[in-house]
Structures are given as C-alpha cells and as structure tokens.
Write a structure and sequence with these properties.
alpha/beta; eight-stranded mixed beta sheet; four-stranded antiparallel beta sheet; 10 helices; 12 strands; 24% strand; binds adenosine-5'-triphosphate
C-alpha cells in the first residue's frame, strides 16, 4: 500500500490583512502538488532555493495547514482524523532540518532531547523505557553512550544532525522528511550523514522525502525524483531515467548548473545555467512557470500552463514541448 500521497495540494503563508468574513488570507506558494511514496522508498525533491520544497514538505506533515487538496496517509485522509488519531499518526512521520544545532534545545541533554517526543507519542512508557529507547536511537545513529549526558553546544554539525536523526527515529516512524539535511555540513561530513540515512532506511524500513538543491546527493539517495519550479511540480521520474534524460527544460538547466565537485568550495548553488528573470512565487506568470527563462519557449508557453502529463515508464512532465 502507498504510504503517503498528496493530491493537488496547495500550501501557503498568511498575508497581512483580513479576507472575506474576517478570515486570514493565505497566499499559496505550492500549487497542485501531487505525489505518492511507497514504504521504504526515497523521493528526492529538487529545485532552486525558494521554489517551495520546504513548504511542500511541511504541508505534507500538516506542520503548515494546506489550503486545498488532500494528503492520504496509509489510506486515511489526514484531514478526517480526530485529534487523538492525528497525534498517533504524527509519530509515524518525522522531519529533520537543515541547521542541526539550531534545531536542538540548548538547555537539554541529548538524552532529554531524543527521548522527549516519546512523552507525546507513547505516553504509557515508563521513564526507564523512554531512556532505553533514546539510548537505542543514539546507538543507531552511531553516537557513543557517553553522549547522552552532553549538551548541543558540545557537538559538531555532523554530530548534531545525528542527534536530530535520533530524535526523529525514536518514535519508530515510517517516514522522515529530510529538509536539506546535509547542506549546512562540511562536504566531508555530508556523505557520512547521507549514508547513515540510507543505512537506517534499510534497517528500519523507513521511507524518506529528501529535499535538496544538490542533484548529486539526490541521485545517490533517491529512488524517485520530483522537480519543483516556482511552487509547481514540473517533472517526476524514476531516478535512473531522470538522470539519463531529463524531459523538462528546467530539469535540464538544473543539471547543467550542477557544479563540478570541488572540495575547496563549501557548497555549490544551482542556478548558473539558469539565465533570465526569476518571477516571484507570489506572482507566478500565467503560462508555464519556466517560460520567462526557458531556452525553448514558444508563444503557447507564455499563455497556457502545461498540466503534468504521463510520458510512460512512470514518468510525468509539465511541458508543452518536452525533450
Ligand atoms: N514563514 C513564511 N512566511 C511567508 N513566506 C514564506 C515563509 N517561509 C517561506 N516563505 C516563502 O515561500 C517561498 C518558498 O520557500 P521554501 O522555503 O519553501 O523554498 P525552498 O525551495 O525550500 O527553498 P530553500 O532551499 O531556500 O529552503 C519563498 O518565496 C519564501 O520567501
């Protein structure tokens, strides 16, 4: 069975002022996002900074309430769950963040940080059981036992991200949304953390949604790849087919912008092959979201938004003139 799917999901942020009937107005960033993920698989989400990857990740977990569309988790529409059911469901879906140290409470020991989610997800556990579970999680992420009594400021970036992962797995989830989990780390540490996630996936049967602007890292870890541009999904494909031949001109531009591996450079940003004006996600163009920058643009692209359509072999693309 599919673990999680989204249909036409719309996620945005409140804007100042009130709308109709005094309601808060929400400006959508992510529009009509559709995806599905099976247990134990990894979906990589790529796209330039600001295209809405994080917003989609948070909308899927209902950390930001979607304004339209639906999310189905293990066959159940998340919007229909009672508070109690949602609390239980939340244990199954976790998130880790880009800045690992900022994500940890500086006043708590690592044992406290890692065991804390259990108070919500499994309130029936005794203190000793919670402690054992937290120690098990720390062991699974490769941290020595004596780390349990340490504080976040004593950690390197890579160690802090391991603690973030331990906190995410302590409730035995089925899915972890990884939001740029290695972008803030030294290049030499990035591979260790990615390999840890792949190892945990194998051992615990985890599904991962791996959000990154780094196409090389996404290639390494993903089974499926999804490309976002200005809040919209423009391409979806199995990993090998995607990297062999991207179908959307935007995907191609992203790939051409991948920097050569260079250990002296901290992190390469995509974008150098992407010329032209980048519209604001708050005011996307009427046609294709890539029309203002596409080297193959035709008049139709500026007026009609192409829908995501099936191209066979489990591939989908939103382009009037795909490769
Ligand atoms: N809390 C917020 N309130 C209002 N707008 C926001 C908020 N967070 C993000 N945005 C806007 O939403 C858009 C998408 O941001 P998001 O962080 O989802 O992009 P992203 O693809 O994850 O980029 P990055 O790789 O830089 O994190 C951006 O234009 C951003 O300015």
């Amino acid at each position: 069975m599919t673990l999680i799917s989204a249909e036409n999901l719309e996620v945005g942020y409140p804007v100042p002022g009130k709308g109709l009937f005094g309601r808060t107005r929400v400006l959508p960033i992510v529009r009509e996002a559709t995806l599905s993920l099976d247990p134990g698989r990894t979906l990589g989400i790529v796209g330039e900074s600001g295209c809405g990857k994080s917003t989609l990740g948070r909308g899927l977990l209902r950390l930001i309430e979607p304004t339209a569309g639906r999310v189905v988790w293990q066959g159940q529409d998340l919007a229909n769950l009672s508070k109690d059911q949602l609390r239980k469901t939340r244990a199954g879906m976790q998130i880790i963040f880009q800045d690992p140290i900022a994500a940890l409470d500086p006043r708590m020991t690592l044992l406290k940080i890692v065991s804390r989610p259990l108070a919500t997800f499994e309130p029936g556990l005794t203190a000793a059981q919670s402690r054992d579970r937290a120690m098990e999680a720390l062991r699974l992420v490769g941290l020595p036992e004596d780390f349990a009594s340490r504080y976040p400021h004593e950690l390197s970036g890579g160690q802090a991200q391991r603690v973030g992962i331990a906190r995410a797995i302590v409730g035995r989830p089925s899915l972890i949304v990884c939001d740029e989990p290695v972008s803030a780390l030294d290049v030499s540490i990035q591979a260790q953390v990615v390999n840890l996630l792949m190892d945990l996936q194998e051992r615990l049967g985890l599904a991962l949604i791996f959000i990154s602007h780094n196409l090389a890292v996404v290639r390494h870890i993903s089974h499926e790849v999804m490309v976002m541009c200005l809040g919209r999904v423009v391409e979806q494909a199995p990993r090998d087919a995607f990297y062999a031949k991207p179908l959307h001109p935007y995907s191609r531009a992203l790939m051409e912008a991948v920097p050569e591996p260079d250990p002296r450079r901290e992190k390469g940003r995509v974008g150098s092959a992407l010329q032209g004006e980048l519209p604001s996600p708050l005011a996307p163009p009427p046609g294709c979201v890539f029309a203002t920058r596409c080297p193959k643009v035709q008049p139709l692209c500026r007026t009609d938004r192409p829908a995501l359509r099936d191209m066979g072999e489990s591939r989908q693309v939103a382009c009037h003139y795909p490769e």
